[in-house]
Specification:
Structural class: mainly beta
Helix content: 10-25%
Number of domains: 1
Largest sheet: 10 strands, antiparallel
Order of helices and strands: HEEEEEEEEEE
């Protein structure tokens, strides 16, 4: 089996597992926008969506979903997740990131449908693995993760290897469990 395909499968499986783990720790309560002092940003970093709303885009296309946001910290690891269990496009959609300090360790974007050729939708990134990158910008309890992840290979042309997709995810945490 091609090393790139093996890596892609491993990264996607790890990301999906992380997403399911974090999703299992969430509740069904919707999140609200935190009220805090106005903050001004002078950096060239992209601005979070209006009102501190969680959102995700892949290759410039917004993932249309009604996200519940879950943020939890254990030790120095921060787990962030956006979930929509009934997305019309992606089915059960989960977007997650694992952060250690200021380093993004993993990103997973997974849907039970919506991928190419009738497959589930999946994009993943793992720190230190080939085929991707990710960076973090923090603003209070809002975390913006941007980068590039590896997607599922096209099964009609397996020799082409896995695809890559650019992602931009905003996690607007009203609270961080365990912080």
């Amino acid at each position: 089996m091609n090393t790139k395909i093996r890596f892609a499968a491993t990264a996607i499986a790890a990301s999906a597992t992380l997403a399911l783990f974090v999703t299992g720790c969430s509740d069904d309560a919707s999140t609200s926008t935190p009220t805090s002092k106005a903050q001004t940003a002078t950096s060239a970093a992209p601005v979070a969506p209006a009102g501190g709303k969680s959102a995700a885009t892949v290759d410039g296309k917004a993932l249309e979903a009604k996200f519940d946001t879950t943020c939890a910290k254990q030790g120095s690891t921060l787990a962030l997740a956006l979930t929509d269990t009934n997305s019309s496009t992606y089915g059960q959609l989960s977007v997650s990131a694992s952060i250690e300090g200021d380093t993004v360790q993993a990103v997973g974007i997974a849907g039970s449908k919506g991928g190419s050729n009738g497959l589930p939708y999946a994009v993943g990134y793992g720190n230190g693995q080939p085929g991707g990158s990710a960076k973090l910008v923090k603003d209070g309890n809002t975390y913006k993760v941007t980068g590039e992840g590896v997607g599922v290979p096209d099964l009609t042309n397996p020799l082409a290897g896995p695809t890559t997709s650019k992602f931009e995810i905003t996690f607007a945490c009203t609270t961080i469990v365990g912080a």
